[in-house]
Fold each of these.
Amino acid sequence: MIRFGGTYECEHSVFWSSNPRVLLLPAGYDAEWFDDVHAALGLQPPPVVSPDARSGLLVRDLLQDGAAQAVLRKHLSGCVQVNLTMTGPTPDVYLLAAMLRGWGLTVELDGVTEEHYWSSLYLDSKVSCLDLARQLPGVLVSDGLIVDNWTELEGAVGVMTARYGRAIVRSLHGVAGNGTLVVKGGGSLDTVAKDSFFTFPLVVQEFIEHAGDVGCPAVDVLVGEDGVEDVVLCSLTVEDGHLFRSVNVGQDALPAVWAQRVDQVAHELGTAARDLGYRGWMCVDCVAGADEKLYVTEINARRSGSTHAGGLLRQWGAERDLTLSAHFMVPVPEGTTYREHIKPVFERLWASGVRAYPTTVRGVGWPDPIIAVIAAAPTAEEAERIVAGIREAVSPAAAPGNAS
């Protein structure tokens, strides 16, 4: 799942920054798409390095590919200092930094240093939320139990469902809702046996009833030496109470009262993360409770899937003016191609001044074809409407004049 998701979503890094840069992308990206989105953004396409795919892990593949390293070194010739901008810290990233330093370059990491790498692992575990909630008065988590085997799991689920009606079972790590199960009293726990993210220990918590018309609040937090340096508000769309589908990013992503609560939690958790040695972007996921309280569900100690939206807002200087809606798994009909069916739709939008982009088209040739799309507008509702129009228009059966 991580190899799949990482490869599919890596192209979102195209939108992180407009600074002079070299991009490291897995082989197989669409070069025409790459040139088109940069032209639409008014940017020159940067050079790209794509190592031979061996492990499915991008940086590890680069470290094993001397030819790709030579290409990267050529692109960096003449540079004195480089900033290593990463999705999140891994041991391989620190090896890459060491290799660049071996070439005589000064390397700045835009995330946590190797000395404090442990803090990213700790924060990324759902247990960290439970710990921090005991220390920070403004951070709430739902009632729960930590279990270490099947006997404890069945007993804990029985107690929590009897007490609250529904419980949510969480693995300490998961992706896009995988590793999470919502269960009613007497419900099946078969998913726990089938989902590879479910490994003990597990957290069994009260399922918080969601407030209507809010979505699941989230926030991207930039942690620096002096604490929280930036906060980007988000609202996640989920299905079945936990499966991630899309995210709205920006000032209109949340109602004002919830935005205030999320901002407060972001500063509390960001400061706590700084005190643990963490630096760089992290994401905090929450639930807006029907009881009008904000509950923290997890911390992702890395860039989130919405980071490209925040990057675009900063590039445009539109943090207070625009909201973006990012959809990661937009289904398209079998036979869809970028050149014939996707590009014409976006060219008409760009000609009309609409800020909407296909953020990856790598999945068009898969058995269940998908693309990722992002759109910007003054309100979240308008941005979502643009995405809905794109979803309708991108089809081999759609006539050229059908796109709106």
Note: The chain has 13 helices and 16 strands.
Amino acid sequence: MKKTAFKITQFNLKLKTIALFFLIVAIAPAAKCNNAKTNPIPQSRAVAFRRAKGLDNGISISWLEQTWNPEALKENPLKNTDFQLLKKLGFKTIRLPVAFEFYQAKPGGIAPLLSRIDNVLAQCRRYRFKLIIDYHYGEINDTNYTSATQKAINTWLLISKRYGKVSGDELFFEIYNEPPHMDPAKWKDAAYNITTAIRKADPDRTLLVGASNYNSIYELSRFVRLSDENIIYTFHFYEPFFFTHQGAAWVGDQVATTGVAFPYNEKNFPQLNPKAKNTWGETNYYQYAKDGNEQSVKDKLGIVKAWGDKYVVPLVCTEFGVYNKYADLDSRCRYIKAVKTSLRALKIPGILWDYHTNFSIFTGPPSEAHLPPCMRDALAPGKPTK
């Protein structure tokens, strides 16, 4: 009886073991799916790192995101002479912000817009520029993020189909410009769904993904990387905002104080504009003595560099620059040089905002004659990132 009971017990144990095995197999895919947003899929990141390195010395072209300009599609700020000038000045990458949702809602639809993008891509390939297509002015927020995410996905599937055969070394997709100040978890969910949808349609494309709160360096430092290995993480850098956006009417009273120089100089520091009182502009006014210098710029860029090193992912700064209506030219040159120098030291590629509008590097229409000597010095490529 004991031997028989022992055999039955062994048999029951085997049955339980087999059942447990199949249970583990059954739930494994679900577990993998639940962790897909944070647990990296084990494959090479070398492609993303190599392509990120090639994005250095870039510039954004403000044009197809100008929803306030009814003539935008009739204009063309990128003629052969512009490509030749950009090439001569050492630029290698063009970032093209596009207000897809705005044009999709117009009576003519998206076809005229796509024709413009086709032309830019053709010229970039002709002159050997890398091109980033950037999804600008989406309407995502905390309450509509599910439907707004689907809208972005639908557009990216259209773009992926149209440009899917273009080499990933030449063309990049920036999935969403400046997600607003929203729940970071909801934005991460949206970013995951957009990248996953693009990846199914365009397996080898390198995607650019940033954090919420307008591509904030601070939000990115709290972000947990996505599972997709072929992503370059992007951020925008306008620190100190008190200087770079002084007098910008679209920002509001917090930047009403003008005449701010870079770096901070106590002797010529302006009085606080009364409009800025009781706003963040007042706080930033008194903070500028500490923030308005090259070391502060480098320290703040170091925040995202440390995050990139933590997750071993490539980074790119897709916007930095200075609103040029009120900031003096020498300060603008010094600031741009400080940012470029710090980015270079941290081995982070940088893309300037912008070519020819209110953050322009020129003192008139784009030309060598309108590029001030101090700006030419600020834009000097220096040693390449390794």
Note: The longest strand covers residues 231-237.
